[in-house]
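Same chain as my last thread, 125 residues:
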Amino acid sequence: MTNEEKVQYWIQLSDYDMETAEAMLQSKRYLYVKFMYHPAMGKILKAGFTKLKEETPPFVHKLTLLARRTGFYEMLSDEQKAFVIKLDPLNINARYPDYKNKLSQQLTCPVCTGILIENKHNENN
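reply #2:
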């Protein structure tokens, strides 16, 4: 597999996760909007890592760590950094009952819609 094929692989996986997050929003499964959004961001960072470094990305799921290892973190605006930091704990926290219950109460349609809108805003900046 060429490096470009690996990059496309990560992008396709990320797109699929984003589509799943949007489907979860439509079906009102709000906890899973953020839960699916986190790996989508991780996979797009891994695509960037693969593109820039031409090597296999690290087997980590912490978005800030991935962003730092690719060198993207320094290029992000303060708003984008805050967004990545806000998403970081969701990968783990959504898996445990205490956190899951707390997150479920906080995640409403407007909150989840805001996350997807915030992402689109950050993509354009």
